[in-house]
Amino acid sequence: METGITLKYGNHKGRLLIAGRIQPPLGNNAQEYWMYNYNTAMFSDDRGKSWQVSDGIMSGTGEAALMELSDGSIYYNSRSHMSIDHRRRIAWSYDGGERFVDWYVSDDLFEIGEPFYFKYGTRPGYGCRAGLARMPDGISPGNDVLLYSSPDWTGGWRFQMTVWASFNGTSTWPVKRLIDANFSAYSSMAVDQDGTVYLLYEGGENQLYDETSVAVFNLIWLLDGDAD
After folding, report:
1. How many of the other CB atoms lie within 10 Å of CB of 228?
2. Cα gap 9→41, rounded to integer Å
3. How do residues 75-120 score in pLDDT, each as one tens digit?
4. Pseudo-torsion of CA 105, 107, 113, 118, nearest 10°?
5. Cα 193 from chain centroid (whole Å)
6. What domains does the chain contain, in order, with CATH numbers?
């Protein structure tokens, strides 16, 4: 459920870019190696025949989503496995995804904390894989309307799949709407050219992971939600 995009703006038009994760040589997700895991990006200039790997993006992170903005910059939104503030980790690229800089923690987008099973500590900071999408130009008010999806239970369990909207290139996320009040976990989003949004997410009415669901909506429906 990684997010891949084809760059449309800037000096790297047509480049394929996908979020990735670098793990230790053993290539597994054993807890003793979590602090050595880090995000990266993979990019291709020949339609996927060959791939290059970007510089590393913040250790202790993984399962990120990325999106290009209309000025050619690339927004990188990441789960954090090792933090205790329950906040998403953000980075930016200004060279087509070869290097990510300007790291910070989000003031608006938060993580769940559980299920927590890190055997070397006692404070939750596990996070969740989230979804990210950009509304097509001409469909929405402005060029950089982004949507973000994740369970909305800060520091807690995997409940309440919710979608947030930003209308200023991710600077703020003032609107959100609940999609599903039941169990929810990993999610991924895509947007059609007519502005129809497709949200795929793990969930269940009685137990987490019992179901995989798809929600279909548009920006007008989302704007009827709550303003933070």
Report:
1. 10
2. 18
3. 999 998 888 899 999 999 999 999 999 999 999 999 998 888 888 8
4. 20
5. 21
6. 4-227 (2.120.10.10)
